[in-house]
Amino acid sequence: MKTMIAGALAIFASWALVDAAGAQDLGPQVKKLAEGVYVHTGRGFESNAGIILTDEGVIVIDTGQNPYESRNIWATVRNLTDKPVRLVIDTEPHADHTTGHFMFSPPGVVIAAAGAGDSMRAAERNAPDRIQRLAATSPEFRAALEGYRFVAPHIEYHDRMTINLGGKTLELIYMKGVHSESDTAVWLPKERVLFSASAFVVNQVNILRPFVTIPDILAAGKMMKALNPEHVVPGHGTPGTVKIFEDGEQYYALLMDRVGKLVKEGKSLDDIKKEVKMPEYASWGSQERFPTNVEAAYKAAVAK
Ligand SMILES: [Zn+2]
Known about the structure:
alpha/beta
């Protein structure tokens, strides 16, 4: 714990110097999207996090890809305000969004869609040595993991939840079947900033688990576009606009078209997996996930 605080203080001190010299330097990963609304962008395809400043304290949205990033997010919060973290909102329960909760809670109260706690506890049971292995990855991870505790959501909501805290309004919207067991879009209507979870990622093939469906993903995209956001912060990938959803829609439309044709020809899933190609998207990352996309497209085509 001491090391963690010392490290963070060192970062804080270096920023404080920059601050004293003039403009506030939040580093290359942090961007202000609206008054009191910041995004901490992950490196490459690593997860993004949100920092919302309110008159009554801070709301953090997801707590970082890994403990090192969580510590950077924590240091950014401290650089921006000395008010306490009041709430932590999970856009999904996976470890690359939630392992860092222990740095923010207490005092932060963790909120997620129903099913998040069960998902996190199951992941913990299935990999009891996960934190030990993570700590062994690098000295930075080991240091950042000091004081680690497993922190699951304190509050789980169904369907929708509205949070009014210190002048900020956040609408939490559950999205069924888009990525995990419990995905939440976080919408700030006044600032028109949308944290869109991992329903759509950017320039990357998403992993579509067996309970994820392409119609559900497209419905979530339609719902989120209808909010008319100015800024869209996906769970992974460079923040942008609703173009993130439109790019995803185009990709799934083309995939559905190609898989649908092969289904009509009477091809089996195995044959389709071998045959269907998406050369237009060869530059996207995580191509090893593509077979899960074909499986989802096949299921949707057969159900038609
Ligand atoms: Zn995930």
